[in-house]
């Protein structure tokens, strides 16, 4: 019991000695806070940018497979049907962005609205979109007004459109778009623009009726953010807005030549088990293709995510390395502060050695003091970095309309805390060893 009390007294004495010099404590606090703050904030920002870069793939609907091929997609579809019983959704994307509206917002400055046209078999529960990372992204969606695409629409090649909420606001502000019509290839002041290729007026400038409105997707929200950023600038030139619209895929096949669109198959599965079986079946069908006639590529959320992570990993490692180097540079300042502490306390070291303190006792004293201070300062710096990143997120979103969501996890909290403590303790080892080797006579004569 007496030994336990001695240790409690001894540790309490060390804690008091670590905070008795306010100047030294302040310098240690500033140096360590800077180091841990840089590392913690850098880790959070790196992880947040990394996760934001993955978002275009992260929104891809679970348990879906997109099949594309340079060969005849119908032949590929028949080939796959021998191995996979699921019926795919046909999706067709027109290469050219189609002009559908223009408005003069200033003198000789216009807002041009074009559509990324997709032909689909069905849109209930799932839509598709394209990005600069993945050319075809299946998305979960819901129809909020009107109807979807029916079997009759497919049979009659109906000229009907389904748009999202943002497209409705752009084309028909403060109005219900259901029942309204839009005309393709509309230029400035309503002038019709198209190549003179021998087609009839109805074929070159088709009119589509809007029959449904779906909820905004991730890509639509990104386009909305881009538009807010554009309109926040005082001096504006011509503004181009790209919306997404869906029609029966048979309508696209009828209106356009085969070299004017890309066609894909989207397979959807009820659960992960069926999805994995589907991936295996498609891989087996792809392998049994010695002559290359039915060559196809399957794209899944997992495969696209793996590819994107591999591409981003080097950038992430580089940013983490820079952050760690800045932390090490800050650690050098901690080393200097520790040496300053030892120099200042040489008389104290001499007195302790005169009363029988060993080298280990002296070294342990300085290391423990730094451990105690670094633990609390690192915790403070981590909390400060989280608050700063959250404030920066709100500021960038409101002021500069930059969509970066702060990503917090256990690694972003625990790792900076450990790094702060480890760097501080490591940087105090050399000064502690130096202090332990000071002779009693030298220490007592030191002024």
Write the layout of secondary structure elements.
Layout: H1 2-19, H2 22-58, E1 64-68, H3 73-81, E2 89-94, E3 98-106, E4 109-120, E5 126-129, E6 137-140, E7 143-146, H4 151-156, E8 160-164, H5 165-171, E9 181-183, H6 201-204, E10 207-214, H7 218-231, E11 239-248, H8 249-255, E12 261-268, H9 272-287, E13 297-300, H10 301-344, H11 346-354, H12 359-399, H13 410-436, H14 440-445
Parallel strand pairs: 4-11, 8-10
Antiparallel strand pairs: 1-12, 1-13, 2-4, 2-12, 3-4, 5-6, 7-10, 8-11, 9-10
Helix pairs in contact: 1-12, 2-10, 2-12, 2-13, 10-13, 12-13
Please characterize this protein's 3D structure.
By secondary structure, the protein is α+β, with helices and mostly antiparallel strands. The chain has two domains: 2-57 and 311-445, no CATH class; 87-268, no CATH class. It has 14 helices and 13 strands. The protein has helices at residues 2-19, 22-58, 73-81, 151-156, 165-171, 201-204, 218-231, 249-255, 272-287, 301-344, 346-354, 359-399, 410-436, 440-445; strands at residues 64-68, 89-94, 98-106, 109-120, 126-129, 137-140, 143-146, 160-164, 181-183, 207-214, 239-248, 261-268, 297-300. Helix 2 runs antiparallel to helix 13 and helix 10 (301-344) runs parallel beside helix 13 (410-436). The longest helix has 44 residues, at 301-344. The radius of gyration is 33 Å and the shape is elongated. The protein starts with a helix and ends with a helix.
């Amino acid at each position: 019991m007496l030994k336990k009390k001695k240790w409690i007294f001894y540790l309490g004495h060390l804690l008091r000695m670590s905070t008795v010099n306010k100047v030294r404590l302040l310098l240690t606090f500033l140096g360590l806070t800077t180091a841990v703050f840089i590392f913690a904030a850098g880790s959070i920002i790196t992880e947040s940018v990394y996760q934001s870069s993955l978002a275009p793939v992260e929104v891809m609907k679970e348990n879906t497979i997109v099949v594309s091929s340079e060969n005849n997609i119908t032949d590929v579809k028949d080939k796959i049907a021998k191995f996979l019983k699921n019926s795919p959704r046909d999706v067709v994307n027109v290469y050219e962005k189609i002009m559908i509206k223009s408005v003069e917002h200033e003198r000789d400055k216009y807002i041009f609205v074009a559509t990324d046209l997709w032909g689909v078999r069905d849109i209930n529960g799932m839509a598709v979109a394209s990005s600069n990372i993945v050319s075809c992204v299946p998305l979960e969606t819901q129809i909020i007004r009107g109807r979807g695409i029916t079997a009759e629409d497919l049979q009659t090649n109906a000229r009907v459109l389904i748009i999202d909420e943002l497209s409705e606001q752009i084309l028909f502000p403060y109005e219900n778009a259901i029942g309204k019509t839009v005309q393709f290839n509309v230029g400035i002041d309503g002038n019709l623009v198209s190549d003179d290729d021998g087609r009839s007026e109805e074929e070159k400038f088709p009119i589509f009726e809007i029959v449904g409105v779906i909820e905004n997707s991730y890509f639509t929200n990104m386009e909305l953010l881009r538009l807010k950023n554009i309109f926040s600038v005082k001096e504006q030139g011509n503004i181009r807005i790209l919306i997404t619209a869906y029609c029966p895929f048979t309508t696209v096949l009828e209106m356009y030549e085969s070299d004017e669109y890309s066609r894909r198959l989207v397979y959807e599965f009820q659960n992960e088990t069926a999805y994995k079986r589907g991936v295996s079946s498609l891989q087996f069908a792809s392998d049994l293709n010695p002559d290359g006639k039915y060559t196809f590529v399957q794209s899944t959320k997992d495969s696209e995510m793996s590819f994107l992570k591999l591409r981003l990993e080097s950038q992430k490692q580089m940013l983490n390395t820079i952050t760690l180097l800045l932390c090490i540079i800050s650690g050098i300042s901690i080393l200097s502060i520790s040496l300053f502490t030892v120099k200042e306390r040489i008389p104290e070291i001499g007195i302790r050695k005169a009363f029988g303190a060993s080298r280990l006792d002296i070294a342990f004293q300085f290391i423990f003091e730094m451990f105690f201070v670094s633990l609390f300062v690192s915790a403070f710096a981590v909390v400060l970095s989280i608050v700063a990143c959250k404030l920066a997120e709100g500021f960038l979103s409101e002021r500069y309309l930059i969509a970066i969501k702060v990503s917090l996890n256990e690694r972003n909290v625990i790792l900076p805390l450990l790094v702060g403590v480890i760097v501080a303790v490591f940087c105090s080892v050399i000064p502690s060893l130096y202090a332990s080797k000071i002779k009693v006579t030298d220490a007592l004569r030191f002024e």
